[in-house]
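Re-running the complex after MR caught last week's input typo. The corrected sequence lines follow. Everything else is unchanged.
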Amino acid sequence: MKYKSQKVAKLYFIAAIGLFVGQILFGLIIGAQYIWGDFLFPEIPFNVARMVHTNLLIVWLLFGFMGAAYYLVPEEAETDLVMPWLANLMFWIFLTAGAATILGYLLVPYAQLAELTKNELLPTMGREFLEQPTITKIGIVIVALSFLANIGLTILKGRKTVINLVLLMGMTGLAVFFLFAFYNPVNVVLDKYYWWWVVHLWVEGVWELILGSILAFILIKTTGVDREVIEKWLYVIIAMVLITGIIGTGHHYYWIGTPAFWQWWGSIFSAMEPIPFFMMTVFAFNMVNKRRRNHPNKAAVLWALGTAVMAFLGAGVWGFLHTLSPVNYYTHGTQITAAHGHMAFYGAYVMIVLAMISYAMPMLRGREAANSTKSQVLEMWGFWLMTISIVFITLFLTGAGILQVYLQRFADNPMPFMVVQEKIQLFYALREIAGFIFLSGLLIYIVSFFVGSKEPEATIEGEVVPT
Amino acid sequence: MAQAFTKAMARNIFYGGTAFFFLLFLALTFQTHSALPELDNRNALTGPQGEMIAKGKQVWEENDCIGCHTLLGEGAYFAPELGNVYKRFGSTDAIKGFIASRPKDGVPGRRSMPQFNLSEEELTAIAEFLKYVSEIKTARNWPPNTQG
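Corrected-run output:
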């Protein structure tokens, strides 16, 4: 750790991991409700548990992104954060607001929460992923603006690197597009149209800038490859992200009452969305192969390579599976979507945050560069258990989805939704088992922070042979 | 990458490409707005009926219906599609009757919709809202059949 103010990242990372555990526990609850429909009913209905599952994901990823920014921005800018106190203050405000919102979901019926928080004054609640009370949304905007001011002024004061600029653009885009969460017309088509400006332009747009810049930072640090080379790759990747991804929004405009021309625009552009993810995979492996030194933090390198591969599979391949409009006609809003969502979020965003935590945490906890070998071995067990489980979760949901599409939409005598759900029970049970293995991987990952702390740091084995 | 391809060129492709495709996206958005009056059933949203539908959307949102159901394919996949429930059930009364009759403690071993204790006015409003959504002209009349 080169700058004292980087230390604020630690709080953000700890909160991220804590909320991640909560997300997985609620994932297991809704997974169980898919098998036993009355599980925890009526105390925790499915919609409430799901909202906790998805909102915790979003919040902990935001904690992770902010932590990553607070760590890498000073190092890239070669100057301390301008306002570390503000970063600390915002951490507690965001954590309190987040916790209060989750408790609100769990403790009172949602309609009552809407009433308590005066939703009728500016109705924004009750839309997927944007379930937060309006007051929480305003809080998110305030936290985001303070965060942007903090890293923006730091970047302005210090060295301006491509990584910092791309990260800042990504974070600014995140804040700007979130503002569409406040637009909620009665007209359902317009509501849905602009809802995607938050959801799609986040995860298939500006968040990928954040992903790219964090990945580039980790690769520079762990491989020692020339910054010029890495920055050029970064520009090409994010160029392809936005060239394909912005019009790619059209793949959400097939069946919601929007004009039919979107079938063409959406299909063609979103079919190209895997390209930047493929480039990211090639980039990561290329840089590691051309490394000028071996980094003692092998776990961090594993996460970095893992995110490149899994983002390509989850976002790229599983996205492509159902992105063409003639296919999507049958698959839209089925378990196929759920399968894609799980692997894409894990591969692209969970893994990049865990890669950054893996890289930065040893330094934040006073190590020179890496944890002990013992700790790293356990962390890599966590990596493999979680990654393999998510692959199986995705495969089982894909199986469920294919059957669902056939029975409910494709067969000569389409069956009702609930009848079909019973017929695909087996896949839900298998998915839940994979979910428990995921949890065990997550617990082992957490244990890795507490073992081998007294043992010496892992060291570099052998010299790199230049190719 | 070949040496002839410089970082400055990559940067220019990024800024130029982003600007161009964002503007194109805005143009397509403008085009969408011009086409929507024919498709989005906005005539239903005027007058007292429109107010009822607006109220219905509020009921829809404040009970987080999207947390279990899909509406035109978007939402959660735990419960049936509701973008066409009016066509599946055949009347607003059938929709109201279904919502009002959900058992408070659920159904043993099975998924069950919670009892939301909606008032008569709220029931009418949500049913009218769902009727309005079912009359939006989706491409190829999605969903593929009445089962959703």
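None of the earlier attempt is carried over here. The radius of gyration of chain A is 22 Å. Chain A has 16 helices and no strands.
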